[in-house]
Amino acid sequence: MKILVNNKETELTQGNTLADVARQLELPAQGVANALNNRMIPRAQWAEQAVKDGDSLVIIKAACGG
After folding, report:
1. I want to staple 1 with a disulfide (CB 3.0 to 4.6 A). Which of 30, 35, 53, 65 is the partner?
2. Where would I find the H helices in the chain?
3. How far is the C-alpha of 12 from the C-alpha of 20, rounded, in Å?
4. In terms of C-beta density within 10 A (0-12 exposed, 13-18 middle, 19 or more buried), how is residue 22 classed?
């Protein structure tokens, strides 16, 4: 299955939930937010949120600074 991750085509090799995508992309356990098809998905829903072929995922990572 292919999805867009931050506007870059990415092939998923395992699973079909947002939690599976996060594991495959080795996202950190904290400091990350995901918007699937322009809708923010709370971390508590990642395990139930299905990801389909052609979906668009935007990953936002928290950064320190000032």
Report:
1. 53
2. 18-24
3. 9
4. buried
**Cα–Cα distance, 65 to 52 (Å, whole number):** 35
pLDDT digits (tens, 9 = 90+) for 10-66: 998 878 999 999 999 999 989 999 999 999 999 999 999 999 999 999 999 988 776
What pLDDT score was predicted for residue 66? 62
Distance, in Å, from the CA atom of 63 to the CA atom of 24, rounded to the nearest integer, reads 22
Classify strands 8-11 and 2-5 as parallel, antiparallel or unpaired. Answer: antiparallel
